[in-house]
Write a structure and sequence with these properties.
eight-stranded mixed beta barrel, 7 helices
């Protein structure tokens, strides 16, 4: 009985290492989908889904202030948001759209205002940077925590490579962007998230290395309307949500270069859990075969 008991214990450890982050991510992902769906329904019912709405004009005016340098870019981990002002123009839920990044396995609501609460449940617009309207001379800076116990948020931002795609969907438009630059900067480097004249950019921002707040990790994306890119995004999205993704992703992520030691340990722990489950399955089948022969 002792080998059997030990085998069960080892199997349970392996399952916990592999399935806990998957289960936590699924629960958080369901919550994110509900938030996004409710925001879309609200936009339609409140009339904010048109470009003549008060919400759209408010964000247009805000973007013009950003372009003119009238607003200060704040580090996203220490600012709030003007909830009353957003409610007055029909954005009382604070959700302006959704963010999809297949290479990070991310589908999140985009919140206006990088409050501590928002940073833990979605992608948040950094105050003083552009709202996601798909305009020239804009830089939409979206920040989030690098979660483990919640929806992964921006945990796997280091998996993004130049050329990868993301999609932003709002009540007014659906836009695809391609990664063009990756860099690590200090927490007070405002120039790295500034508007670049004539370019329509989206910058993903989070703390770095994983588990610390020492630096900021940035991935800059630029708008693309190339039909091939739009088709490539759909292919990336389908691959990320495919039936084998949950099994293949842990090994792929573990083999990727990563500058965050804590994240490397977490990734290989999941691979170890998967290997343990595979070994125990083979062991159990072999045991049953031997008993059947006896």
């Amino acid at each position: 009985m002792l080998p059997t008991i030990l085998g069960v214990v080892v199997l349970l450890v392996g399952m916990a290492l592999f399935f806990f982050p998957v289960a936590a991510n699924e629960a958080s992902q369901h919550e994110a989908e509900v938030v996004i769906r409710d925001a879309e329904t609200h936009a339609q019912s409140s009339g904010t889904a048109t470009k003549d709405s008060a919400a759209y004009k408010y964000l247009q005016s805000y973007n013009e202030q950003v372009r003119e340098g009238e607003l200060t870019v704040n580090d996203p981990f220490g600012i709030g948001s003007n909830v009353d002002e957003l409610a007055d123009v029909g954005l009382d839920n604070g959700v302006v759209g959704s963010l999809t990044v297949p290479s990070m396995d991310v589908y999140l609501p985009i919140y206006l205002g990088s409050t501590h609460e928002n940073l833990e449940r979605g992608a948040t617009l950094v105050a003083g940077t552009s709202a996601p309207l798909g305009e020239k001379s804009s830089n939409v800076v979206l920040a989030a925590h690098r979660g483990y116990y919640t929806n992964g948020l921006f945990r796997n931002i280091e998996s993004v490579k130049e050329g990868d795609l993301l999609q932003i969907k709002t009540a007014w438009d659906t836009m695809v962007y391609r990664a063009v630059e990756i860099k690590v900067v200090g927490p007070n480097d405002g120039d790295s998230v500034a508007v670049r004249p004539g370019r329509d950019l989206v910058t993903l921002l989070t703390c770095h290395p994983y588990g610390t707040t020492r630096d900021r990790y940035l991935v800059v994306f630029e708008r693309t309307t190339d039909p091939d890119d739009l088709a490539a995004f759909e292919a990336e999205e389908a691959e990320a949500s495919g039936p084998l993704a949950a099994v293949v992703a842990p090994l792929t992520e573990a083999l990727e270069p990563c500058d965050s030691p804590a994240l490397v340990v977490e990734r290989w722990a999941r691979v170890f859990g998967l290997a343990v489950m595979a070994f125990m399955l083979v062991w159990a089948v072999g045991l049953l075969v031997r008993r059947a022969r006896k």
